[in-house]
Specification:
Layout lengths: L1 H10 L3 H13 L2 H12 L11 E11 L1 H6 L9 E10 L14 E8 L5 E7 L12 H6 L12 H10 L5 H8 L11 E2 L4 E4 L5 E10 L8 H6 L5 H10 L3 E9 L19 E12 L21 E3 L3 H5 L1 H12 L5
Antiparallel strand pairs: 1-2, 1-9, 2-3, 3-4, 5-7, 6-7, 6-10, 7-8, 8-9
The protein binds protoporphyrin IX containing FE.
Protoporphyrin IX containing FE binds next to helix 3, strand 2, strand 3, strand 4 and helix 10.
Length: 334
């Protein structure tokens, strides 16, 4: 059947238009990426295949004049923009420990008064763990235990890491960073680059971050020992009930020399970081579920005035998010 279609396309002079699509699909199929998550973490029916453990929250965002100077996006107009949020723990297990050295994450859906939406999903590390979409599945597969030994094959893991040393950078960062004491005391980075465009059509590439108002607070080893595996959601509920959790939304401004297409490489600290607004979380769901659950935080849903960069990792995200959404929404409820 496939041969017939290709032959027909070639006859119609369409082969050259079709081949790149076919080639691309073979490089990094989203099903393979999601299957690799299931291979490592098990098939967790009805849960997200990545960042399975999380809590829904909501609040609002207020943009400032610096934001309006850099981008025409309606979210910066100074009005309160309602936000649906989801805080989560990295990995594909809904039972992941809140004490683990994985990332924490903050995903947001902004809905401006003009109906425009902005979806973004950010992690508590300034870099991502792979630089190319085609490495995503392999990164997970070489860490997946071999059924015969119960352990990953050390030779495969070493060969992949030696060939792609950038895939060790995030784990190195997380190993040194203290475990966050609260979902509201971690920094959350976009890792991918985006382009801001203002009313004069001036362009500025940025990476953004949500910075907790009280600064990063981590746990000491003694505090870690005294805590149960589940504490983050309740801690956030108590904190928000007592007055809310606030983050500064900041962007790091790229220099013309900075690469925009590799989220494993952080930009130099010398690049300016400027605040464009504040995010306030003022409600947390009492239990599992809530408005965030049916959303997939596709990072290419952007308001006018924010454009995606050409980062292949960023451009590859919507497809596996859709696959995971499709699986979890059609499986038996939790
Ligand atoms: C090729 C690269 C990537 C793949 C294959 C991938 C895959 C996935 C999948 C399958 C989900 C679950 C989606 C759902 O069920 O709604 C997800 C969620 C998520 N991803 Fe990615 N991802 C990639 C890149 C990134 C990057 C670069 C970041 C860094 C900021 C990131 C951060 C997140 C976060 C925070 C969530 C949870 C969002 C939520 O709470 O719903 N991902 N990812």
């Amino acid at each position: 059947m496939k041969k017939t279609i290709l032959a027909a396309a070639a006859a119609a002079g369409l082969a050259s238009m079709m081949l790149p699509v076919v080639a691309q699909a073979q490089v990094s199929p989203p099903e393979t990426q999601v299957n690799a998550l299931e291979g490592l973490f098990g098939k967790q029916a009805s849960f997200r295949r990545s960042h399975a453990k999380g809590v829904c929250a909501s609040g609002y965002f207020v943009g400032n004049a610096v934001g309006r100077g850099l981008s025409t996006a309606s979210v910066f107009n100074g009005d309160k923009v309602p936000v649906v949020a989801r805080f989560s723990v990295g990995g594909g297990s809904p039972k992941a420990s809140d004490k683990g050295k994985s990332v924490r994450a903050l995903a947001l859906q902004f809905t401006a008064a003009n109906g425009e939406q902005w979806l973004t999903a950010n992690i508590s590390a300034p870099m991502y763990f792979v630089s190319k979409p085609e490495h995503f599945a392999t990164f997970l597969q070489v860490r997946t235990p071999d059924p015969a030994t119960g352990k990953p094959d050390p030779a495969k893991l070493k060969a992949f890491s030696d060939a792609n040393p950038e895939t060790l950078l995030q784990a190195g960062y997380l190993a040194k960073a203290p475990v966050p004491a609260s979902y509201a005391s971690a920094n959350y980075w976009s890792t991918n680059a985006f382009e801001l465009v203002n009313a004069k059509k001036e362009s500025q590439f940025v990476r953004w971050q949500f910075v907790p108002e009280g600064g990063f607070v981590g746990l000491t080893d003694d505090q870690l020992k005294s805590l149960p595996d589940e504490f983050l959601a309740d801690e956030l509920r108590k904190r928000v009930a007592a007055g809310g959790a606030t983050f500064d939304f900041k962007v790091q401004l790229a220099d013309k020399t900075d690469q925009l297409t590799d989220p494993t490489k952080v930009w130099p600290d010398s690049r300016p970081v400027v605040p464009l607004g504040k995010l306030v979380i003022d409600k947390v769901e009492a239990g599992l579920g809530g408005a965030c659950d049916k959303i997939t935080f596709n990072p290419l849903v952007l308001p006018k005035g924010i454009n995606p960069s050409k980062d292949p990792i960023l451009l590859a995200r919507p497809a596996p998010y859709g696959v995971s959404l499709g699986r979890r929404l059609t499986e038996a409820a939790k």
